[in-house]
Amino acid sequence: MSKGRYSTVLRENLVSNNPILVQVLGICSTLAVTNSLSNTAIMAIGVSLATAFSSWSLSLMNNLIPRKVRMIVQVVVISFYVIIIDILLRAYAPDVSKSLGPYVGLIITNCIIMGRAEAFAQSNPPVISFWDGLTSGIGYMAVLMGIAFIRELLAFGTLFNYQVMPDSFTGGGNNWTIMVMAPSAFFMVGILLWIVKTRQLKKTSPAGGKK
Amino acid sequence: MNKNGIMYTIVFTFIVAFVLVIPLSLANEATKPLVEKNKQLASAKSVLVALGLVTKGKSPEEVLSDFSKLQVVKVPKPASQGKFRPPEILYLAEVQGERRYAGFFAGPGLWGQIEIAFGFNADLTKLRGFKVFAQVETPGLGGRIDEAWFAEQFVDQSISENALMFNATSSSKIGDTQKDDSDVDGITGATLTSNGVKDIVNKAIQFMKSTNPEGAQQ
Predict the structure, then answer these.
(1) Cβ contact (<8 Å) for A102 and B136?
(2) Does the predicted TM-score (pTM) go above 0.95?
(3) At B88, is the secondary structure helix, strand, or coil?
(4) Closest CB to A99 among B139, B171, B189
(5) Span A149-161, mean pLDDT?
(6) How far is the C-alpha of A175 from the C-alpha of B53, rounded, in Å?
(7) How much is the ipTM here?
(8) Comparing C-alpha atoms, which of B129, B136, B118 is closest to residue B193?
């Protein structure tokens, strides 16, 4: 497999076909975890690993899976990897497991994993499927960390739980309470989607885009 | 065998499920003792923190050893109080020249049970410690009852008459630092969880006052 193919996949999953901003997948978890940078980082790593390994396994099994149970088998494989991550966290990083709680198990329902399994792993060899899964996760992580950076900063005045904003910000009630709750993520993802879509339209429109 | 025939489909699905579930069960079984040990350690730590004893920097063996040195006091079981679960034993220790009691109290939160270790001074005028042991509240919202600033509000907080008040709050990570006004800040965006914790705190106070362990000891 040529190096070119790998860098194309990377570029697409990070930018031109970003899971959240272009494919509009995985929005639920985006809204849920992004008020804390540390929770976001752990969640994104979990999604990346689960997507990478699931895509890899499903690609290996490609020719064996009967059409009728394709999605069922995909879900079983995805669940396997997510639950392994959950068991490992619970045993070896109990504090992390506690702070993420039910969100780890919910990775199974993250549309990105199923989406990549259907769109890529089904019709591509195992190694590049692994790479596609991993880079999709990284594209997801980039957007989430960006949103989490703003949300945590404005909601709590902290970054990775370290106080960054001066006392007058949080102590004086000047922090943005809405950033604590999901609706703020709605607005931010909406604004980001708006920016990305506008730029895409400008690029593809023959007249160079009109307002 | 026809890949899309019924026999193949059934056999294939069965094999896939079998092959994937077995390692999961093995992993689960293999980590069970470790998970149990973590739980015991967390439980011991919660009691020590509730009593106001130091756990920072101590190894797991030291924590467990400190825990085993605590005196245990049995408490008569009260009449059923619905979903509120008071402890059946209290832990007694002398800390900084003061006799203190701690126990696990549980009650309903938003999604499930919240279990908290509380520490009281012997005459029940002050809370000496607060440690959330188990909760399944929404991470990032109700789940923030785990955070240090929230627990810190309860340490050395006075108990007026019978109840502790909860204020609505800004989402700062500072909380209410006043220790003698018998009120604390709740968590923004987590009203139901905050109410759940408020109920547990106040029912715990009532339980301790009606049980009066210090009086029973003498």
Answers:
(1) yes
(2) no
(3) coil
(4) B139
(5) 89
(6) 34
(7) 0.77
(8) B136
